[in-house]
Amino acid sequence: MEVLGIWVAAFFTLCIYSFLYRDNPFYRFAEHLFVGLSVGYGIVFSIHQGLIPFAWDPFWEAITKREFMGLLKLIPIFIGLLFFARVVPKYSWLIRYPIAILIGIGAGRAIPNVMDARIFRQVYGTLTPFGQIHAGALGFFEIFGAILMLVGVICTLTYFFFSIEHRGAVGGISKVGIIFLMVGFGSAFGNTVMGRVSLLIQRVDFLLSDWLRLI
């Protein structure tokens, strides 16, 4: 079975990489199979990890034990079933209610976390090194990095400040902000490319060592 698994993995790896030549039936077969398996796994996982423990089991327990409070589980179950109203065009407008509830709860939970992670912690990380500078705990390069980070934050925020026209000093600062943005985007893109290259190396190593046993 281990040998069969290696051959199957090698076959689908070659099917996916065949797209480098052009679109072909082998690539489409592997793509459709991957999407189908992912959707099937997601549905089964949602049923066993979500529907059964959080909906069916409490509801059935409330029915068998005749607990009225357990029947309140019917409310979120009914709201969740409204997602399937999209299948019937006449009642497709009902899907707005679960979507609105989902987005409202998601936004209410996400906004404080985003504020903390992207604003408060950014301000804390920007200003903390200057307290260490005052205490004499940083060397020259650490001090230079702290000042450079502060300049980058100010210039980048100035670039996205559209309440005043970007002319004169404000225009110059915003142009410096563009430089910092390009450096940030370039490093992020380079990190993404290196991640993809590492995946390619891993697949090539699998084909040459585990499948063909050339190395």
What does this structure look like?
With 215 residues, this protein is mostly helical. The chain has a domain at 139-215. The chain contains six helices and no strands. The protein has helices spanning 2-17, 25-65, 74-81, 96-134, 140-159, 168-211. α1 crosses α2 and α1 packs across α6. It starts with a helix and ends with a helix. The mean pLDDT is 90.
Annotate the secondary structure layout.
Blueprint: H1 2-17, H2 25-65, H3 74-81, H4 96-134, H5 140-159, H6 168-211
Q: What does the main sheet amount to?
A: none
How much helical structure, as a percent, in the residues?
A: over 70%
Output the structural class: mainly alpha
Approximate shape: extended
Please indicate the percent range of residues in DSSP E strands (runs of 2 or more): under 5%
State the distance separating the first and last CA atoms.
Answer: 22 Å
In total, how many beta strands?
0
| Rg over alpha carbons | 28 Å
| Integer average pLDDT | 90
List low-confidence stretches.
Answer: none
Helix and strand sequence: HHHHHH
Number of helices: 6
